[in-house]
Design brief:
With about 230 residues, this protein is an alpha/beta fold. The protein is about 35% helix and about 25% strand. The chain is built from 7 helices and 9 strands, in the order H-E-E-E-H-E-E-H-E-H-E-H-E-H-E-H. The strands form 2 sheets. It has a 5-stranded mixed barrel. A 3-stranded antiparallel β-sheet has the order 1-2-3, covered by helices on one side. One of its GO terms (biological process) is L-methionine salvage from methylthioadenosine.
Length: about 230
Amino acid sequence: MQTEALPLVNAFELIEDADSVFPKGTPWVRYHGTYKGLNVNIIWPGKDAVLGVDSVGTVSASLVTYAAIQALQPDLIINAGTAGGFKAKGACIGDVYLACEVAFHDRRIPIPVFDLYGVGLRQGCSTPNLLKELDFKVGKLSTGDSLDMTPQDEASILANDAVIKDMEGAAVGYVTDLLKVPAIFVKAVTDIVDGDKPTSEEFLHNLSAVTVALGKAVTRVVDYIAGKAVSEL
């Protein structure tokens, strides 16, 4: 979302791309610049042309990730965003997680092998040294296209052993795995899915404050990355 992207755009002092590297007519926005010797690009999927809301969800995330890799040939992708957390797994509002694994919870295909394809389990980039240096929590991320959670989704999330849930991570993971680009998933908790407050209300109430925390966390990640090869992370 734009609210998630702008704190990072400001932190890295990036500028908006005047001549889009993306196909004409797409709403995707690129901010770019240099930071501590790194070429940094932040891609925001933009607004829906008809409804004017942020282009969230797995379809948009997949397309943007693919287009960005094709246009920019990055060495590393950081999927930074907010997520819901589960108090039963120890998550609290404002916690920042590095997702070690990503999977889907709403692609249910009850046919042998297709069921595994639907879950789409993939590993995040291994970053043992980064984790030693930074004090983020680590957990599994489950992705779906709905903000709320049905009983079927809940069962799938439990089966995924997920601590956090979002609406794009596993889709990004699918594309980065397909094109062999390492990816790190940094997620900050805006709402407690198994708490006593409605998810949508808690998400909107905490969004601004948590995106500030997300911006600080991603800045720390990029600070650590600067001057290192991916294999050193």
